[in-house]
Amino acid sequence: MASIVRLPRPLADIWDWQRNAACRDLDSAMFFHPEGERGISRQRREDRAKEICAGCPVRLNCLDHSLRVEEPYGIWGGVAEGEREASRRHR
To answer: Structural domain of residue 35, as residue ranges?
Structure first.
């Protein structure tokens, strides 16, 4: 009989944390900027998204995901794209 010890975990185990995300049933537009959005309107949208992330039970899972796959856009785990990029450059 073949050994299954080295098989990868089921994908459901890897992504299951998303089921508990505070943003799960919200409009994704709150977390991703529309083309051309700048200034105070962008800052307000990002601030609202970060408030939601601040109380999210899976915030750290989300942030870890975004850093591992280098998500180029959006607010992930309460961190904006520019902040993640700066963190990557710093490392």
So the answer is: 12-90
